[in-house]
Backbone:
């Protein structure tokens, strides 16, 4: 765990996702700070993250020059 470059709150405000130097995104419970899931697959730091309006997916942009769309509940990468 290293530097966090970006965070995004889900539209309902219950969770947030962080984008980090350590090549991961992490989903957090806002109320108690619990880490809910780690998303792996980037090969370099992730600089930006944004939730979709429905809160089910989020997009990341990393220093590996790949934009990814992630499913927040399953943890799967839906698109690269």
Residues:
């Amino acid at each position: 765990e290293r530097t966090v470059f970006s965070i995004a709150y889900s539209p309902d405000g219950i969770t947030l996702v962080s984008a980090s130097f350590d090549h991961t995104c992490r989903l957090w419970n806002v109320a108690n700070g619990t880490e809910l899931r780690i998303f792996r697959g980037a090969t370099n730091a992730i600089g930006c993250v944004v939730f979709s309006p429905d809160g089910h997916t989020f997009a990341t942009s990393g220093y590996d020059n790949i934009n990814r769309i992630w499913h927040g509940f399953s943890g799967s990468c839906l698109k690269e």
Q: What stands out?
A: The first strand starts at residue 4 and ends at 9. The chain has a mean pLDDT of 95. The radius of gyration is 11 Å. Strands lie at 4-9, 15-20, 25-29, 35-39, 46-51, 57-62, 67-71, 77-79.
